[in-house]
């Protein structure tokens, strides 16, 4: 003997015979849409992350380029100072 009321068993039989498959299909479709939305969100996050990474790499490349140019200019200034000091000492002699 079941612990459920008789009317409850009748409802379960009806759902299982007619609507159970429909409910199952709707549930599967709903889950599929949720998974699809999640996948699209993850894909979008990855694309945004990739764009940010590319942007950061561009900034690093520009920084390295300018640092190289700054170092060349520093070396040139040092060389000019050295030449100036040498000429200054030659004039004094």
Q: What's the short version?
A:
The protein has 93 residues and is mainly alpha-helical. The protein has one helix spanning 6-92.
Describe the structure.
Helix content is 94%, strand content 0%. It contains 1 helix and no strands. The longest helix has 87 residues, at 6-92. The protein is rod-shaped. The termini are far apart. The model has no long low-confidence stretch (mean pLDDT 75). The chain crosses the membrane at residues 20-39.
Rg, Cα atoms, Å: 38 Å
State the helix count.
1
Order of helices and strands: H
Give the number of DSSP strands: 0
The best one-word shape is rod-shaped
Main sheet attributes: strand count, strand direction, barrel closure:
none
Query: How many domains?
Result: 1
Low-confidence stretches: none
Distance between the termini: 123 Å
- Average pLDDT level: 75
Structural class: mainly alpha
Strand content: under 5%
Approximately how much helix is present in the residues?
over 70%
Transmembrane segments: 20-39
Keywords: Membrane, Transmembrane, Transmembrane helix
What keyword list fits this structure?
93 residues; mainly alpha; 0% strand; rod-shaped
Give the SSE layout.
Blueprint: H1 6-92
Keywords: Membrane, Transmembrane, Transmembrane helix
Transmembrane segments: 20-39
